[in-house]
């Protein structure tokens, strides 16, 4: 929409980072100073993030990423929005940019052939082609490509164990896809490693396919990892494929269970959502730790001890950092900023 003043950026880049902790500090500071919010993972193998901000702030952020030679090839999926999609900024160091159990694979060395959205669209219905969804159950139950093969996995790290179920497809053209493309980089490489002969991946994932090819034949909605929870993709022939977990009516409204010890990702209709106060069952509704329900079914991710100030005060310009973080002198940091 033309009135949307914010952007949501989805991106990843496989690139070697020698000192992830030092880069985390630098990256976090840039986000704080430019009112960028979201979740960013930094690891020795690269970057992975979803962030939001005013369009001009996001332009600065993309320029910052591209200005580093290590990440110059980073491609951003850009969606417009009417507000921030996150409440805070978290920049964390982790062993991988997506937990895969495939740390030995370097997509810069070998991976499936990249297909642009229009190329994927042209190939997907051919007789010798199979479409493979490499996402988790709660994602493909909400939405998937028509005729796609889905795997019964709770997390992407379970993907390698499921590949043996696909042995009969080794001589087919296998088109893999995920939300933004990052999982397919390693999933397609692993399929090649296991003897699959002709493997492809949807470059930029479902999000780019929706933006550039209209989303044709993607059925349902796409689960996303921000406070929107689920987004429309298909502007050509949309259908709803999910049903309410509670009452069984057709429903594509995604909710995270209000019981944090459950936190299941499920389709729950608005009526059942209010009746169960955001919980997925009576038991979860009565759980003593149940979170207050505001009708969205989205809850800010637990920080798990994350310290946004870690290491920042070692810099020579620490006084500038203090005033920026606390909003005492920086005129750009106001009611629209939470760090």
UniProtKB/TrEMBL annotation:
<dbReference type="GO" id="GO:0006400">
    <property type="term" value="P:tRNA modification"/>
</dbReference>
<keyword id="KW-0819">tRNA processing</keyword>
<comment type="similarity">
    <text>Belongs to the TrhO family.</text>
</comment>
<dbReference type="InterPro" id="IPR022111">
    <property type="entry name" value="Rhodanese_C"/>
</dbReference>
<feature type="domain" description="Rhodanese">
    <location>
        <begin position="125"/>
        <end position="218"/>
    </location>
</feature>
<feature type="region of interest" description="Disordered">
    <location>
        <begin position="320"/>
        <end position="339"/>
    </location>
</feature>
<dbReference type="Pfam" id="PF12368">
    <property type="entry name" value="Rhodanese_C"/>
</dbReference>
<comment type="function">
    <text>Catalyzes oxygen-dependent 5-hydroxyuridine (ho5U) modification at position 34 in tRNAs.</text>
</comment>
<dbReference type="InterPro" id="IPR020936">
    <property type="entry name" value="TrhO"/>
</dbReference>
<dbReference type="InterPro" id="IPR036873">
    <property type="entry name" value="Rhodanese-like_dom_sf"/>
</dbReference>
<dbReference type="GO" id="GO:0016705">
    <property type="term" value="F:oxidoreductase activity, acting on paired donors, with incorporation or reduction of molecular oxygen"/>
</dbReference>
<dbReference type="Pfam" id="PF17773">
    <property type="entry name" value="UPF0176_N"/>
</dbReference>
<dbReference type="InterPro" id="IPR001763">
    <property type="entry name" value="Rhodanese-like_dom"/>
</dbReference>
<dbReference type="InterPro" id="IPR040503">
    <property type="entry name" value="TRHO_N"/>
</dbReference>
<keyword id="KW-0560">Oxidoreductase</keyword>
<dbReference type="Pfam" id="PF00581">
    <property type="entry name" value="Rhodanese"/>
</dbReference>
<protein>
    <recommendedName>
        <fullName>tRNA uridine(34) hydroxylase</fullName>
        <ecNumber>1.14.-.-</ecNumber>
    </recommendedName>
</protein>
């Amino acid at each position: 929409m033309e009135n949307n003043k914010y952007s949501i950026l989805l991106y990843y880049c496989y690139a070697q980072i020698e000192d992830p902790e030092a880069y985390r500090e630098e990256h976090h500071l840039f986000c704080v100073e430019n009112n960028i919010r979201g979740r960013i993972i930094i690891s020795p193998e690269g970057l992975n993030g979803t962030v939001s901000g005013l369009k001009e702030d996001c332009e600065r952020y993309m320029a910052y990423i591209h200005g580093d030679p290590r990440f110059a090839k980073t491609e951003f999926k850009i969606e417009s929005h009417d507000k921030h999609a996150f409440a805070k900024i978290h920049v964390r160091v982790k062993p991988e940019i997506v937990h895969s159990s495939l740390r030995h694979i370097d997509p810069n060395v070998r991976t499936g052939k990249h297909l642009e959205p229009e190329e994927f669209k042209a190939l997907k219905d051919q007789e010798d082609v199979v479409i493979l969804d490499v996402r988790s159950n709660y994602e493909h139950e909400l939405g998937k490509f028509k005729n796609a093969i889905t795997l019964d996995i709770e997390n992407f790290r379970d993907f390698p164990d499921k590949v043996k179920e696909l042995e009969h497809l080794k001589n087919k053209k296998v088109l893999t896809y995920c939300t933004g493309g990052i999982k397919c980089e390693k999933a397609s490489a692993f399929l090649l490693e296991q003897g699959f002969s002709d493997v492809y991946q949807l470059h930029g994932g479902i999000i780019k396919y929706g933006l550039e090819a209209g989303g044709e034949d993607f059925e349902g909605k796409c689960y996303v990892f921000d406070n929107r929870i689920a987004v429309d993709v298909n502007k050509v022939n949309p259908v709803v494929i999910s049903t309410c977990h509670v009452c069984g009516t057709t429903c594509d409204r995604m909710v995270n269970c209000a019981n944090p010890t459950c936190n299941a990702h499920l389709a729950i209709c608005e009526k059942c959502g209010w009746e169960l106060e955001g919980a997925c069952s009576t038991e979860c509704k009565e759980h003593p730790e149940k979170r207050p329900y505001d009708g969205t079914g989205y809850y800010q991710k637990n920080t798990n001890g994350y310290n946004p100030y870690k290491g920042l005060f070692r810099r020579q310009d620490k006084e500038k950092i203090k005033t920026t973080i606390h909003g005492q002198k920086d005129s750009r940091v106001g009611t629209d900023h939470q760090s």
